[in-house]
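call fold(seq) -> tokens
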Amino acid sequence: LPSYINDDEENLPLILYLDSLSLSSNNTSTSKKLRKYLKMAWDEQYPNKEAFFDKTHLEFFTLPTPQQTNSSDCGVYILHYAEYFARRNYTDEEIGDIDANWFSYREISTKRKEISKHIYRLAEIQNNASNNNNDDKDK
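ret:
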């Protein structure tokens, strides 16, 4: 990570960009769009308060990440990233150590199967509840 992030005098916010497809070789466009969105959302929510989302006040840092092998696992990767960050309080140094071997494809495959099982289980519960409601109406 950039050295100023560890500066004790000023702890600046940071956007971590994780792209499991590496579709964009130039992340400048993504950074600009995110900054523009944040500025618009801020201005709408807090019209009388000034906030700065430029490079000086909000760093945009691209992390090397494990790459997906298909075009359908984007959501699974996002959930896996979120779970990793939610379960662990990464230090700046640890975030800087994240690389393309952060986790294995096997973890993604397992997560996809777990999600599928949850969806089927929820569908079954919903179907049973619907059938019970229909049975009650028939009485």
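The helical segments are 28-45, 74-87, 92-96, 105-138.
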